[in-house]
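Hello Y.,

Per our agreement to keep a running log of every chain we model this quarter, I'm adding this entry. I've kept the format consistent with earlier entries: sequence first, then predicted structure.
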Amino acid sequence: MRSLALSVTLMLTGCVGSAVIPDYSDVPEFSLTERSNRSVTHKDLAGQVWVADFIFTHCAGICPTMSSNMQKLQDRLPKEVRLVSFTVDPNNDTPEVLTEYAKRYNADAERWLFLTGDAEAIQSLSVGGFKLALDPTGGTEAEPITHSSRFVLVDRKGRIRGYYGTEEAHNLDRLVADAKKLL
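Predicted structure for the entry above:
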């Protein structure tokens, strides 16, 4: 009876729950083009912990904040953790455009990938695979592309383990802590 009471007390105070990282679903297969023009598939990330986001280079909204925060993660996370930015505007974000964008954020080419490819494949990956909102019908200044502003943590087995808001520092702190646990 005492152990049950202790377990309930620990759960209510967060001591037990804080150690558990959720396990959502598998990242589906994909094959896209990296800014370096090389092909990258989900298998290239197998065995690695990684953080994903969905952005586009001419975004006047949340994307610059997301990319700045991804740059902070690049500095804070252990070198083993990869970063992957998928463009939601592949018609405009060519490998050359992504290369210039990556330079703005001092993206380490060995750790931070910028991927582009078929628009339908990216939409399917965002919505169906990562379970993130994406409405690519915009694309103009008057009507921008609408997409999720969350970071997604993926474990070594290719399983989605967390979703993190990108605007508050405490979410980034939690992401860093969770990524370190997964290593």
